[in-house]
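sry for the spam today, last one i promise. struct tokens for design, 158 residues
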């Protein structure tokens, strides 16, 4: 939870008197880094495109149940990977235009936390794989553990 999210939580629903106390109880861990990246699939792009050709915002898409929170989760890992600090949980905050190419905008702190040194390091992104129903064009998470896709999606739950 970010400081802003904690502040937006009504005081009666907060379990901690201060944000610092919240961090201490949660080992000052990072829930996720917010990133901007290209729309991950053509089917998602189609679902997010309004009738006038513009794209919905993330908030609008969630409100209209076009996408769900699980579709915004990602895992970023640096190559070369040295330890857990070379990996980070990510959450898609918004999408960059197609003209931007395959770029991911990440927070400045990711460089320090992941141990990047700007020589040949790369950050790879892993997203959950979703199917789309033919009847009502709704996304569903692939969970069959007998398939590679289902097993890959399970990694997010570990």
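last one done:
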């Amino acid at each position: 939870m970010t400081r802003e999210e904690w502040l937006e939580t009504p005081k009666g629903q907060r379990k901690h008197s201060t944000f610092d106390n919240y961090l201490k109880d949660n080992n000052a861990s990072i829930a996720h880094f917010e990133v901007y990246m290209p729309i991950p699939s053509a089917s998602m792009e189609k679902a997010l495109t309004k009738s006038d050709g513009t794209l919905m915002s993330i908030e609008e898409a969630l409100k209209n149940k076009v996408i769900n929170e699980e579709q915004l989760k990602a895992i970023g890992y640096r190559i070369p990977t040295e330890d857990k600090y070379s990996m980070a949980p990510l959450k898609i905050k918004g999408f960059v235009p197609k003209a931007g190419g395959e770029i991911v905008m990440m927070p400045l702190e990711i460089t320090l936390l992941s141990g990047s040194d700007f020589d040949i390091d790369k950050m790879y992104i892993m997203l959950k794989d979703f199917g789309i129903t033919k009847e009502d064009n709704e996304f569903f998470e692939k969970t069959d553990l007998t398939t590679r896709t289902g097993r890959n999606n399970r990694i997010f739950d570990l």
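Residues 1-31 form one domain. ok im logging off now
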